[in-house]
Amino acid sequence: MPPAVVAFLRDGRVGRLATADAAGRPLVVPVCYALDGGHLYSAIDAKPKRTRNLRRLRNIEVNPQVALVVDHYEEDWTALRYVIVDGAAEILREGPDFTRAITLLLGKYPQYRAMGLEREASGVIKIRVRGLRHWRSDTVAC
Q1: Is residue 24 left, alpha or beta, with left meaning phi > 0 and alpha meaning psi from -120 to 50?
Q2: 4 Cβ contact partners less than 8 Å away, ≥ 6 residues apart
Q3: Is the pLDDT of residue 33 over 60?
Q4: pTM above 0.85, yes or no
Q5: In the prediction, which pLDDT does 53 show?
Q6: Distance, CA of 11 to CA of 107 (rounded, Å)
Q7: Can you tell me the distance from the alpha carbon of 134 to that of 4, in angstroms, rounded to the nearest whole number?
Q8: At residue 95, what are phi and psi to the nearest 5 degrees?
Q9: Residue 118 neighbours by CB under 8 Å, 6+ apart
Q10: Are 4 and 142 in contact (CB under 8 A)?
Q11: pLDDT above 90 for 116
């Protein structure tokens, strides 16, 4: 990954995670995430949800192909940019990768420390980066 793209992903605060079910029906949800080398992690946290059996998790179980978009918007359109990450996802519930992901997310988002993520996470989505597309309106790489 080009260093500017890595920095943009590392510093981004929110991404939009796209998943699809076995029939190809899409779902896009905003997520907090952390980057670690060739992987992105997003926790299933304790924020209020109708169920812990989330559609994005069900989708990943039957179709692990995902995309994550991180973008920057301003009214000055010369400052627009985005990165699209294509990858394969899996759901972690324990183990060293799970622990590493929680540590990264706690370091990036103080809100997770306040809500006790290390005790409350019911899973982590791990995305192995397979490809990137990036664009910046001034034609300089992100």
Answers
A1: left
A2: 140, 141, 142
A3: yes
A4: yes
A5: 76
A6: 12
A7: 10
A8: 100, 175
A9: 102, 106
A10: yes
A11: no
Tell me the two tokens of residue 127: 């995305």
| Whole-angstrom distance, CA of residue 120 vs CA of residue 118 | 6
Amino acid at 46: A
Closest CA to 88 of 65, 68, 69: 65
Dihedral sign for Cα atoms in the order 34, 37, 68, 95 = negative
Which residues lie closer than 8 Å to 112 by C-beta, 6 or more apart?
Answer: 32, 43, 45, 105, 106
Tokens of 52: 């812990």
84 torsion bin: left (phi>0), alpha (psi -120 to 50), beta (else): beta
- 92's CB contacts (< 8 A; 6+ apart) are 98, 101, 123, 124, 125, 126
| 8-state DSSP, 37 | T
Task: Please check whether residue 43 is in contact with residue 126, taking contact to mean a CB–CB distance below 8 angstroms.
Answer: no
Amino acid at 104: L
- 3-136: CATH topology is Pnp Oxidase; Chain A (2.30.110)
d(CA 59, CA 36): 23
pLDDT in tens, 60-102: 999 999 999 999 999 999 999 999 999 999 999 999 999 999 9
